[in-house]
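subagent[fold] <- orchestrator: predict structure for attached chain, return C-alpha cells only, no commentary.
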Amino acid sequence: MSAAEGDRARSVLVVCTANICRSPLAEGLLRASLEGTGLTVRSAGIQPLVGHPAVPESVDYLRRRTGVTLRHHGKALTSQLVSGSGAILTMTERQRAEVVRFSPGALRRVFTLRQFVRLEPYLPGGSVFGGVDQLAEALARCRAVAGPAAEGEDDVVDPYGGTPEMYEYSFALIARSTSRTADVLRARITCRDSESIPPPR
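subagent[fold] -> orchestrator:
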C-alpha cells in the first residue's frame, strides 16, 4: 500500500470555492464529531482566498456548536490533497464536477456533502468497510440505484456576503449533514481490530 493509499483510507477532504466559509465550518464540525476515531478531516478551495482567515460567521457558528475556536486560513485544492483523501465532499454539484475535472481519477470518491448521506441508505444493510476510500467506492455504486437528486437537493447554498438568515440556513444544512456524515463514517468504517469505530463518549 502506498502512502497516499494509506492516508486515503483514513482521510476526508471538504471542498468549497474560497475555503473561508462553508468548507472550514464543515471541516471543524466533522473533526469535532469524529474525535477519537483516528480519521483525518481537511478542507480546501477550488478558487481559494489563500491565507485569508475564515469568515467571522463560520468562526462564531463553530464556537457556538462545539466550543472550538476555528483557526483556519484559506488553502488551495491540490492533486496531493485529492489523491490522499478517501472521500472528497463538496458543497455543490457544480463544485463536485469541477473537482472531477481537476482530478478525473477521483470520480468515484467525490460527492457533495448532502449526496454522501443521501446515498448511504442504499448500501447493503450492515455492510462495513476497511477505509473511507472503500466506503466511497461503495457509495458511488449506489448512484444508479438512488437516481438523480431533485434540483438543488444535494447542494449547500453559499451565504457569503448575504444576510444573517442566509448564513444560519446554510450553516444549519452543513451542521445536519456533517452530523449524519460522522454517523455514517462511525457505523461503516472498521478499525484495525475489525470492530466499528466507537461511538462518541
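orchestrator: received. Logging for downstream: The chain has a mean pLDDT of 93. The longest strand covers residues 11-16.
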